[in-house]
Amino acid sequence: MPIWSVLVPLVSALLLGLSQSLGTSVGVLTVFGVALMLSVLAAVHHAEVVAHKVGEPLGTLVLALAVTVIEVALIVSIMLAGGAKAAAVPRDTVYAAIMIICTGVLGLCVLIGAARHRVQTFRVAGANAGLSALMALATLSLVLPTFTTTTGEGTYSNAQLVFAGVASLILWLVFIFVQTVRHRDYFLPEADANNEHVHAEPPRTWHAWASVGLLLVALVAVVGLAKLLSPSIERAVSDAGLPKAVIGVVIALLVLMPETVAAVRAAHANRLQTSMNLAIGSALASIGLTIPAVAVVSVWLGLPLQLGIVGKDLILLLLTFGTAILTLAQGRTTVMQGAVHLVIFGAFLFLTLVP
């Protein structure tokens, strides 16, 4: 195990623990930023060690689930601290996560993989199962609240919110069962469907468990440091006169960095199936865990919750899913498909800055 991969999570966690006493000077914030970036690299390293030990598709599930659980904790903490002012935080975070993953991460993986290997393949059955679940979850959570009439536009009643939360959790759990048990072969690389350990000897058990622990420490450091840096980001956005939605996008980008780096590295190594598992699985977990959690908090504590998206955001979401359907239809990807996804991602970022 490389020494840097041990030291970085521990030092970053120490910085996080000492953050209250270190202050918020420019130098300290710069150190936090460097620690954040290094923690991302450490998280990816340990996730890959665990993934190699347990094999696909469980390996990609480790990083996606770990990041999402901590992301949910971050969203709930913001809701509890912000009250009514944070009513749109879950919506903005989930929407940004879907757009970043389905256009930015997926597009970058396809483009880099195709540029290096010309044409890459993946299993259509697994990718389509994930995409169909993602479309259903996004519609229940982000689209229908705009059109329901029991409460104001963009909101759910308590009964509707409970239904959406339970449905989201059930659908996500069914997908995990399909991915890891019933149809596990749909999510294995075609060349390695019968043996996912063909490339190298798996790490020893103690090594894998050490990586699990260090992965969790690194992810806590990533999310914690991102949260510490968010007030500075908020001030910078405010001073620049940019929309508040930019803050959610920036924080989502920071939190999703470990998954992004891992997915891109897999595509570069001609393992696009791993990239697909990680990208689609992360998007599903982002909704399947976030919506039930915020539903419980909202109903239990009576906090307002704004879920529905409108206007350009709704159009971009529909465009993203339509493009993803075409990209995943053949099980083969080229540079063209990657470019289309990245153009949509560019439009998402630009229209967030200039609504």
From TrEMBL:
The chain crosses the membrane at residues 31-51, 58-82, 94-115, 127-147, 159-178, 206-226, 246-266, 278-303, 309-328, 335-354. Residues 25-180, 211-353 form the Sodium/calcium exchanger membrane region domain. GO terms for molecular function: potassium:proton antiporter activity; sodium:proton antiporter activity. It comes from Aquabacterium olei. It is found in: Membrane. Keywords: Membrane, Transmembrane, Transmembrane helix. It is a multi-pass membrane protein. One of its GO terms (cellular component) is plasma membrane. It comes from the Bacteria. This is Ionic transporter y4hA.
